[in-house]
Amino acid sequence: MSKGKNKTLAEKLRDLDPRLVYLLLFLTVGITSMIPLGLPMSVSAPTRSLYEAIEAIPDGSVVWYAWDISPGEIDQSVPGMVAMARHLFSKPVKIVFISISAADGPMIYFNTLPELKIPSEKEYGVDYVYMGFVPGGELSVAAVASDLRGTLKTDYYGTPIDSLPVLEGVNTAEDFSLLVGRISSSAMIDSYIRQVTSRYGVNLALLIGASGYPQYIVYYPQTIVGILNGAKGGAEYEILSGFLGKGIAGVDTMSMAHILLLALIVIANIGYFGEKRAKAKGGM
Amino acid sequence: MSINIKRTIPLVITGLLGLLMITEGFIISSDIASLASITRDWGVIIVSFSLILGGMNVIRNHGSRVAKRTPRWEYSVLVLIAMFVYMALGLSLTMTSEIYSWLYDSINLPMGLALGSLLAPYLFSASVRAFQARNLDAKIFLACAGIVLIGNIPSVYTISPLLAAIGPWLTEVPMKGAFTGLLMTAAIGSMIVAIRTLLGRESAYLGGE
Predict the structure, then answer these.
(1) Among A246, B17, B156, B158, which is least packed, fewest CB within 10 Å?
(2) By the 8 A CB rule, do A25 and A260 touch?
(3) Strand (E) or helix (H) holding A238
(4) Average pLDDT estimate for A151-164
């Protein structure tokens, strides 16, 4: 086997320089971000199920929106979260935003508020409310689910819970018709399943990061009635709901990045088989 | 027989509270439900205090590095400055103030996004190296990965509806089955650990010897 500068073409293809890979990725993402290709996309069944689950929420119901997101997940998750929230705001339902598993939840909520484009007829405290960050992981999920008024005495701004019309009659998780949103860690999704769905029968409709999707598709469609698969799912939901945003703008980039990865894998394997063939011929 | 008070009392507390929580799930009683609710509220309060403990730990660790001038102690100074600035602003002006929001949006968010985006190049590079058909297992792995990758391309449906369907099928049928088995195993393991914890046989959470 050759070393260093005497590497054969096959070896160079097999051991592609990571810097070249990074450069190609940078160029692909950069160019497709600046020059949209307008590539079409289809909508997957779990995304469609989530859309239908939100459409089926009875008028006047209260929805628990889990706003659990960390800064590193913003690009992957916020487009889908915004599309889901805007869909909910377009319906005559009440929304209770709560952050439990992510301490950055409040700051990202306020950062994202302008994108939600909350209709002017929706009033804070009457149609929606933000309860802030509740530390404690699964313990907090259990506490909020079993006794919301006992655990959350005020909303994020300090308004007593009893003077918030949106939470009138809401005492436990049973009073919510659906739990939607983004839960930042896999362990916490299990917590919500245990403490909310199993105990109170409230179904989940979640945006899950692409890495966690294979793990939580197990619960679809019985427990998790609809799933958005990361950024792709967010873009699909924007198409379905009609609330287009950053998600759909990233479809071209996602497609071309996937194609680049496939191409590089093929090239690396061509190099591998080329080197193997050369060795077999006794050329090394 | 000597009793180690330091270990016995926490184990008894764990066992009793665990029993209370389990009983709440099986016996419908307003008294038990009320007790369980109070216990959960206590837990939330204690966790909130633990955040303060975490903050004090950060100050202690990084303060120690600065005092001893350990390698890269300058970064510990930055950590402490950032911590105190955010704390001071948050306590005096609240987190909804303009300056706090500006600081967070200008520093934390871009840094968090940058760290998150670093994952992509590393995954690319690692995938190119990992997905090479060295043996039969690797060939099967490569084939499955390739199918799922193709299925995940948002626009693949326009090229071939069949290619768009195979990847999701692989995820939603065989992979779902495999993960269900894993989850069942993990659930049984968790139950065993929980029972051992309630019986005091598992005391790793107490720390120490």
Answers:
(1) B158
(2) yes
(3) helix A230-241
(4) 93
User: Residues A118-135: pLDDT tens digits?
Assistant: 999 999 999 999 999 998
Torsion angle defined by CA atoms of residues A257, A260, A264 and A265, in that order, rounded to the nearest 10 degrees: 70
The beta-carbon neighbor of A143 closest among B25, B41, B132 is B41
What pLDDT does A284 receive?
Answer: 47
Long-range CB pairs of A203-206, under 8 A, 24+ apart, other chains included: A203/A53, A203/A178, A203/A179, A204/A178, A204/A179, A204/A180, A205/A50, A205/A53, A205/A54, A205/A84, A205/A178, A205/A179, A205/A180, A206/A66, A206/A180, A206/A181, A206/A182
| A249-254: long-range pairs with CB below 8 Å, 24+ | A249/A36, A250/A75, A250/A79, A251/A39, A251/A41, A251/B154, A251/B155, A252/A32, A252/A36, A252/A37, A252/A38, A252/A39, A253/A28, A253/A29, A253/A32, A253/A33, A254/B153, A254/B154
User: Quick one: pLDDT at residue A4?
Assistant: 53
Starting from the edge strand earliest in sequence, which strands make up the sheet with A128-133, in order?
Answer: A128-133, A94-99, A62-67, A178-182, A204-208, A224-229
Distance from B200 to chain A by nearest Cα, in Å? Answer: 21
A154: phi > 0 → left, psi -120 to 50 → alpha, else beta; which? beta
Tokens representing residue A16 in the block: 């592609």
Q: Which of B101, B124, B129 to mutate: most A Cβ within 10 Å?
A: B124
Smallest Cβ distance to A268: which of B36, B128, B179? B128
Other Cβ atoms less than 10 A from the Cβ of A29: the count is 20
CA-CA distance, A270 to A11, in Å (whole number)? 10
For residue B131, which residues of chain A lie inside 8 Å, CB to CB?
A: 265, 268-269
Under a CB-based contact definition with an 8 Å cutoff, are residues A188 and A100 in contact? Answer: yes
The residue type of A204 is L
Say yes or no for a CB contact (<8 Å) between B112 and A44.
Answer: no
> Given A143, A210, A269, which is nearest B40 (Cβ)?
A143
Q: Is the pLDDT of residue A160 over 90?
A: yes
**Interface contact flag, A272 B132, Cβ < 8 Å:** yes
Q: Taking the mean position of all CA atoms in its chain, how far away is CA B107?
A: 23
Q: What phi and psi values does residue A103 have, to the nearest 5 degrees?
A: -65, -25
**Contact between chains at B44 and A18 (C-beta distance less than 8 A):** no
Residue A3 has pLDDT above 60, yes or no: no
CA-based nearest residue to B170, from B146, B203, B205: B146
